């Protein structure tokens, strides 16, 4: 599969959309820890040639990058992006509403935390609807993002982080943020090895569950955790 590029963003710029937010998440599959999403508005001027910011050519889906390269790109993106928003949905909420809705809520939180209002959003596959925005009221969250007008200005792309640099950049921000969270949680629950597997169902993690059982940040609604009790 080819590397992500700016073809989609450039076409949107030509249509008059200047503030394009790529949105992606990390952490749907782990047995423990939050799901984290990021929304990134890159500084794309004119036709946004890659030569104007050479680091953009290095951006890939976060899963395809080494931790070192991810961290370096995270710094570059944060230094040059017009705005970055991060949305975190914790384990208790995942267990309450399910991972699908939690994923959408993380997207909405990331968009709500942007300092610059996007005029178009491109997501990795998931489509946001008005019913998803109701999740804020359901969970009694303090503020509802004013993104309802954006719902008609969105594009949802399967494997979007392999197509769009904006989406891939969002995946990097989300991955680095979540990995740091899991590293911090490792200091509280060192017996599980969260700093190594980040909550995914590795052999090491499953063995730890057999010995210690689940802790407070395990997703009780996930089958392997229910079975480990």
TrEMBL record:
GO CC annotation: cytoplasm; ribonuclease H2 complex
Record-annotated RNase H type-2 domain positions: 18-229
Subcellular location: Cytoplasm
Required cofactor names: Mn(2+); Mg(2+)
Family, as annotated: Belongs to the RNase HII family.
NCBIfam families named among the record's database cross-references: PRK00015.1-3
Protein name: Ribonuclease HII
